[in-house]
Amino acid sequence: MTRPLIRLKNLTFTYAGSKKPALKKVNLEITKGEFIILTGPSGCGKTTLCRILVGLIPHFYPGELIGKAIIFGRDVRRRSIKEIAKRVNIVFQNPDSQIVMTTVEREVAFGLENLRLSRDEIIRRVNEALSRLDITDLRSENIAHLSGGQKQRVAIASILAMMPDIMILDEPTAYLSPSSADKLFELLNKLNSKLNMTIILVEHRLDLAVKYASKLIIMVNGRITLQGPPKEVLSEDLTKISGVNVPSIVKLYHRLKSIGVRLREVPLTPFEAAILMREVLK
Amino acid sequence: MYRLTSAFIYEGRKTWVHELDPRSKLILSATVMLISILSESLLIQILVWTGEMLISFIGKELRKFLNSALLVLPFSVFILLINYVFGRGLMASITLSLRLVAMVGAFSIFFALTPPEDFILMLESLKVPALISFSFSLALRFIPVMAEETQRIIDAQRSRGLKVDSRNPIRRLKMMMPIFIPLIILSIKKSMEVAEALETRCFDPNAKRTSIIELKMTMRDYLIIALSLAILLAYFILKCSI
Amino acid sequence: MIKVENVWFSYDGVRYVLKDVIMKFSEGNYIAIMGENGSGKTTLLKHLNGLLKPNKGRVLVDGIETSKIPVSELARKVAIVFQNPEMMFFSERVYDEISFALRNFGLDEEIIEKTVKKVLNIFGLDEYATESPFNLSEGEKRRLAFACVLAWNPKYIVLDEPTAGQDVFQRELLRGLIKQLTSQGRTVIIASHDVEFVAETKPYIYLLSKGEVIGEGKAEDVLTDDKLIKKAGLIKPQIVEVFNYLGFNYREILDVNDALDFIIKKVSERNV
Question: E strands within C121-171?
């Protein structure tokens, strides 16, 4: 069993000026190489949880933090955002709020310049990040001329260049069309498998992403209600996962179960679903 | 109006002039402006302005340059009249008014011929405090974003019946509120988000930073600087020999 | 009826974002305009209430050309809810936010008061009448946005990507809203690339790709057309794909409910 990179124990957090806790007694362990999907209805605490993982809570968002949040061996309260950023980093939802430079190259280099790496190292990492995101040809482009999907890739490249052990992405596909979203998830899966980078994806759209996940976490009202391998979590009673955008094929699994047709397991892709149904309906 | 103010905006063209190191362009523009300021001679002002026009022509931004002259024309005429009315001979007054046009022209050729990113790099290389050059850079980055957002807000409010074509100044002010307030709120929200993103990318405005891009002077740049010095020298020699 | 007749549109005079678009939105219908981001959906929607006027061709709302009347008048008939509608809030109280449009349209104070009360009730926001719109939760803000735009009973309701970034509860709300509006005889037009939502609600579909209409038809015809879906840069609904793999090509099976109806029928046929 690999040692967890992040351990949250009984974590409760209330934003300053708020009466209700945004996180309630959260228990979570994150290890290297996981592909985690974090989901739940609006306001369930997903973003708050992400903020703790990168140290924005408590250093940028003050409030009352109770319980343990151990990030790479030390409590988050005793680590600066800068320290944490080298190991855990986040791609925010709206690339227009994250991108601060005017050209792609400078943007991807930005974080590295702040870390004061040597110029050669910066150039090397920028090249690699651009290549992995398939945007090498956009290197000298002006950000204002890029499409939403391209900006998203630039934002991810700029975080990738910092080579964190854990990369969090907060609803990266909210404004993308399904085919672009699909390509993005495929790319994240490649990063996860090739670089053994832990990916934490906050998403509403499970249908395309869930087939890559090693762990699915469901949050409701500040608590983690379910966590585990996707097939396990999604085979739970529909009432337990009602706040989640359950993929159609999973809904089908449950509805079939309710009329007495039992598929062998929960399908995560339409192809799987077809095979499972053929087994049973012949 | 927009067409006239675009005299000072770089719009993506890529001639060799645009690709010169911004510092050499700065020196050239500064030289030209200096001569204009120092000289009382009408002929010199005309020469300076013609020289600027030539530069903008080579850089294929002639229209912008001429627009800058158009933009400043009313002020220039005003200066001419005021000076003449208050007793400063006709020649002198025209010289003064032309000086204004020449100065504005110098600004125009610098900014129209320099990509904003280069401008930022130039500030950094001149050891302008990081916070100032970074603020410039951020402003530049977010101008198109905020322009887009403003348009979105206007669209949304017009779709709720907001009239934007009123002549009445009071009504025009009232109509600004449903656009202004959401815009301010959006700006604040964006600032917070940008601040967050700067934190997680370890930005420290006071700390020293490496830079991936370096400004490199080429032969052409040195030639331009040499040219500027030559022009300055020629001017002083001319002045002294008269 | 809204008619889009051979509309061409360009923002910069060089590249056309809409090319010879022909569409028809009849009263009481539910229509979806589908396509990738950048296909021209939002640009097209903005033509429906006159925010944009075509370079060539014309848009007719109930027989009147949009280029001939101001947006403030067209908006009475054609209401558009853009993406992230919460960004338009600016009032001190929810009440004022909702009454904003009503005041713009010149309604009486008395009527305004009655209408706002009614609308607050419909959207479950009665207790928030004097609250600041900025204190509401995300879901409440979205409901308020709908309340603001539906307060004046527009005939045509246009929604731009209404399910983008939305959770399950908000999707449910939307589904119910669309049903209610069409049952009231109003026309609902959505721009969406959310194939699952479209598969569940089954509108008439126009497919837009790079500014051109590349296909149209009933949901069951369009969503099951492999080639067309691919050309539009979309993905087939999961259930459609499952049944394709199973070798069935039944047009009527688009979502889970359809699938279940079909399976129950087959099972009971077998048992007979």
Answer: 156-160
Contact with chain B for residue A192, Cβ under 8 A: no
Residue C262 lies in a domain: yes
Tokens 């731009």 correspond to C160
Is the entire prediction scored with pTM above 0.95?
no
Give pLDDT tens digits for B151-163: 999 999 999 999 8
Handedness of CA A246, A251, A252, A254 (dihedral sign): positive
Whole-angstrom distance, CA of residue B59 vs CA of residue B18:
7
* Cα–Cα dist A252/A280, whole Å: 14
- How distant, in Å, are the alpha carbons of A165, A266, B57, B76 from that of B52? 55, 73, 8, 17
Asked whether residue C112 is assigned to any structural domain, the reply reads no
User: Over the stretch C102-143, which tens digit does the pLDDT of each residue have?
Assistant: 999 999 999 999 999 999 999 999 999 999 999 998 889 999
**pLDDT value at residue A211:** 95
Residue C110 lies in a domain: no
Q: Is C237 on the interface with A (CB under 8 A)?
A: yes
d(CA B33, CA B107): 9
Nearest to A111 among B138, B145, B202 (CB): B202
Say which amino acid occupies C97.
E
Query: Does residue C80 sit within a domain?
Result: no
Residue that the structure tokens 């940008």 belong to = B194
* A-chain residue closest to B197, CA distance: A98
Q: Does C89 touch chain B (CB under 8 A)?
A: yes
Nearest-Cα residue of chain A relative to residue B119: A102
Instruction: Say which residue, B62 or A164, is predicted with more confidence.
Output: A164
Q: What is the mean pLDDT of chain A?
A: 92
3-class SS of residue C218: strand
Residue of A nearest to B212 (CA): A119
Q: How many domains, in total, are found in chain C?
A: 1
* Contacts by residues A205-208 (CB-CB < 8 Å, ≥ 24 positions apart): A205/A173, A205/A181, A205/A245, A206/A37, A206/A39, A206/A244, A206/A245, A206/A246, A206/A247, A207/A245, A207/A247, A207/A248, A207/A249, A207/C196, A207/C238, A208/A173, A208/A178, A208/A181, A208/A182, A208/C235
A4 secondary structure, DSSP code: P
Q: In what order do the strands lie in the sheet with A63-71?
A: A23-30, A6-15, A63-71, A74-75
User: Chain C neighbours among B 182-221 (CB < 8 Å)?
Assistant: 182, 185-186
| Chain B contact present for C70, CB below 8 A | yes
Chain B contact partners (≥3 CB pairs within 8 A): A, C
Cα distance from B44 to chain A (closest Cα, Å)?
Answer: 39
Q: C249 is in which domain, residue-wise? A: 237-272
